[in-house]
């Protein structure tokens, strides 16, 4: 599973971006998206295109966590959203390791057998993806819409939110400014490692 | 150390019974905003910001000492060591609810360090990453001024400065306080 | 329980506050109040200076008393006398020199009440009123004119000091050492004194 997390200001200015991979089920925490490295903008493209859905969903109930709100099937990218009361949007794109396609990354998803570890960032290892996917069927990685995943993302969002509040309370941070704090980045990474 | 425990007891008692409490974030954000604004006003001249903070603290200290004395009802300290205990265990306790450790005395008992395990003024703070603030700005410098102003009012001329700060990545936040002299001519000689 | 009036004198001897709470004393002109403040300030300093100092004679007393006396100095005494330099230096030097040297030097002394430094004039009484003086450690003097039979003046004094700290010193627009013109101070003081009677 690979993740792309972004924070958008109420006026749609990107404040913070981070990409990371799962650390569960033997994952090494490195993001392996299905696009080549040269096309990383695809993540931003997909995640920003879900903003309309967010704006629609935010009035449906009073929750800050909007759960899974959008899917982009061509890249099997799933988007979860979280709203802060001030209107900042936390968006998380998750992309499970492919179950059947040619770019399946068994090493990251299953952790079984001796095939892991050799895969490049481009995801070039051709492995028996189906068995790996079955092995981790109940894990967060394989099933982006399961209740377990929703819960894990909720925990992640809550932890990031807590740290976000502390970061914007920094007197040297001005509203609407890009978040450059290394401390915040490391806290988000830690939250990702802990929950996703 | 009996004077230390006595001071701790006084501090605790006052904190519980005589002090109006105020939300900590309010204090932290107010102070943080002041520092950030100063940094902006002085265009990143952090030496000047340190100086202004110290001056603000000095003016606060000269007023705050009366409140400290009126509340605590304690008399004159016998020596500088006792003064240090009073600052840490009573002063910081009733105004910030912390009690920095008094340590690193020089052999002549005229210099000590206050080591802050916690610092409510600096919660949430990360110094600007302009490559200079980390080396030049003493974020909590107002405290040095407060001590200087307060002690001057009770006839002690001191010098106080920070030597390290966790905000800068140091292991501890430490302030060095040196007694310059007791001000003996407390009242100017006057001719009626 | 009559409190006639209150005068506050800054550390330089200037009158910074004068209020009458209940009639009973004759009024003075503003100028006379200023003179009263200045005169009292001088008399206070003189009375403190003439407080007798009793030399400590026996070597054993010299050995033990300076330390115990200096630790007792912290007891609530409401005085502004700086620690006598002689005491301070002696206390620090005795750690290295012998006790006999100290007693021969005869620089050690005690005040009539051991451990309490000289405070100067504390109260002045006539059959019509009593003047109580409280000097803070910062040198400000509070003079309270009361009925001579009034008890618990310290309580009133302490409360006045607290009001002063709260409504005068914490008023950001009050300039230190300048005349006190703080409406909130007057209001609270008046209200509190009226509530007591």
TrEMBL record, chain A:
Gene3D superfamilies linked: 3.30.450.70
GO biological process, one term: endoplasmic reticulum to Golgi vesicle-mediated transport
GO annotations of cellular component type: cytoplasm
InterPro entries: Longin-like_dom_sf, Sedlin
Pfam families: Sedlin_N (PF04628)
Annotated protein name in UniProt: Sedlin
Organism: Aspergillus violaceofuscus (strain CBS 115571)
Automatic annotation (TrEMBL), chain B:
Keywords: Endoplasmic reticulum, ER-Golgi transport, Golgi apparatus, Transport
Main subcellular location of this protein, as a coarse class: endoplasmic reticulum
One of the GO biological process terms: macroautophagy
Name assigned to this protein: Trafficking protein particle complex subunit BET3
UniProt family annotation: Belongs to the TRAPP small subunits family. BET3 subfamily.
Organism: Aspergillus violaceofuscus (strain CBS 115571)
CDD domains tied to this protein: TRAPPC3_bet3 (cd14942)
Subcellular location: Endoplasmic reticulum; Golgi apparatus, cis-Golgi network
SUPFAM superfamilies, alphabetized: Ligand-binding domain in the NO signalling and Golgi transport (SSF111126)
GO terms under cellular component: endoplasmic reticulum; Golgi apparatus; TRAPP complex
TrEMBL record, chain C:
A Gene Ontology cellular-component term: Golgi apparatus
Keyword tags: Endoplasmic reticulum, ER-Golgi transport, Golgi apparatus, Transport
Keyword Ribosomal protein assigned: no
InterPro entries hit by this protein: Longin-like_dom_sf, TRAPPC
Pfam families listed in its UniProt record: Sybindin (PF04099)
GO biological process per UniProt: endoplasmic reticulum to Golgi vesicle-mediated transport
Region of interest called Disordered, as start-end residue ranges on this chain: 61-99
Localization per Swiss-Prot or TrEMBL: Endoplasmic reticulum; Golgi apparatus, cis-Golgi network; Golgi apparatus
Record family assignment: Belongs to the TRAPP small subunits family. TRAPPC4 subfamily.
Subunit structure, interactors included: Part of the multisubunit transport protein particle (TRAPP) complex.
Name of the protein: Trafficking protein particle complex subunit
Organism lineage: Eukaryota, Fungi, Dikarya, Ascomycota, Pezizomycotina
């Amino acid at each position: 599973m690979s993740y792309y997390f972004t924070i958008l200001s109420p006026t749609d200015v990107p404040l913070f971006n981070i990409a990371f991979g799962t650390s569960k089920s033997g994952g090494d925490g490195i993001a392996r998206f299905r696009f080549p490295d040269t096309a990383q903008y695809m993540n931003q493209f997909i995640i920003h295109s879900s903003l309309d859905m967010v704006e629609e969903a935010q009035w449906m109930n009073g929750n800050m966590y909007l759960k899974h709100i959008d899917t982009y099937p061509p890249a099997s990218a799933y988007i979860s959203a979280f709203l802060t009361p001030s209107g900042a949007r936390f968006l998380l794109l998750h992309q499970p390791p492919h179950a059947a396609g040619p770019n399946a990354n068994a090493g990251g998803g299953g952790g079984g057998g001796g095939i892991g570890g050799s895969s490049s960032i481009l995801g070039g290892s051709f492995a028996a993806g189906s068995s790996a996917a079955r092995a981790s069927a109940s894990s967060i990685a394989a099933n982006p819409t399961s209740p377990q995943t929703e819960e894990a993302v909720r925990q992640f969002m809550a932890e990031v939110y807590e740290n976000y509040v502390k970061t914007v309370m920094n007197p040297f941070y001005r509203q609407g400014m890009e978040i450059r704090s290394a401390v915040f980045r490391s806290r988000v990474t830690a939250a990702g490692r802990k929950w996703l | 150390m009996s004077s230390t425990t006595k001071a701790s007891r006084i501090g605790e008692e006052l904190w519980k019974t005589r002090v109006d409490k105020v939300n900590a974030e309010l204090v932290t954000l107010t102070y943080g905003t002041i520092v950030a604004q100063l940094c902006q006003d002085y265009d990143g001249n952090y030496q000047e910001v340190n100086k202004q903070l110290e001056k603000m603290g000095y003016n606060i200290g000269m007023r705050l000492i009366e409140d400290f004395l009126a509340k605590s009802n304690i008399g004159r300290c016998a020596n500088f060591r006792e003064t240090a205990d009073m600052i840490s265990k009573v002063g910081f306790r009733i105004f910030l609810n912390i009690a920095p450790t008094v340590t690193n005395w020089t052999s002549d008992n005229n210099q000590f360090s206050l080591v802050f395990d916690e610092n409510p003024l600096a919660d949430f703070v990360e110094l600007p990453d302009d490559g200079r603030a980390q080396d030049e700005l003493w974020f909590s410098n107002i405290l040095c001024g407060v001590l200087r102003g307060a002690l001057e009012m009770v006839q002690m001329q001191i010098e106080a400065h920070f030597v390290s700060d966790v905000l800068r990545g140091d292991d501890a936040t430490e302030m060095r306080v040196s007694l310059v002299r007791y001000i003996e001519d407390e009242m100017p000689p006057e001719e009626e | 329980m009559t409190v006639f009036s209150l005068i506050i004198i800054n550390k330089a001897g200037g009158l910074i506050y004068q209020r009458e709470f209940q009639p009973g004393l004759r009024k003075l002109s503003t100028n006379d109040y200023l003179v009263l403040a200045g005169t009292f300030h001088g008399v206070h300093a003189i009375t403190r200076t003439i407080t007798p100092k009793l030399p400590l004679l026996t070597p054993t007393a010299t050995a033990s008393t300076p330390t115990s006396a200096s630790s007792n100095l912290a007891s609530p005494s409401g005085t502004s006398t700086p620690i006598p330099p002689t005491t301070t230096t002696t206390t620090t030097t005795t750690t290295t020199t012998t006790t006999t040297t100290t007693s021969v030097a005869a620089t050690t002394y005690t005040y009539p009440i051991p451990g309490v430094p000289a405070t100067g004039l504390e109260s002045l009484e006539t059959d019509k009123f009593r003047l109580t003086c409280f000097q803070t450690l910062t040198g400000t003097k509070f003079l309270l004119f009361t009925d001579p039979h009034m008890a618990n003046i310290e309580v009133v004094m302490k409360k006045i000091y607290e009001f002063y700290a709260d409504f005068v010193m914490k008023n950001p627009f009050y300039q230190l050492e300048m005349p006190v013109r703080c409406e909130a101070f007057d209001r609270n003081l008046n209200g509190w004194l009226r509530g007591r009677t």
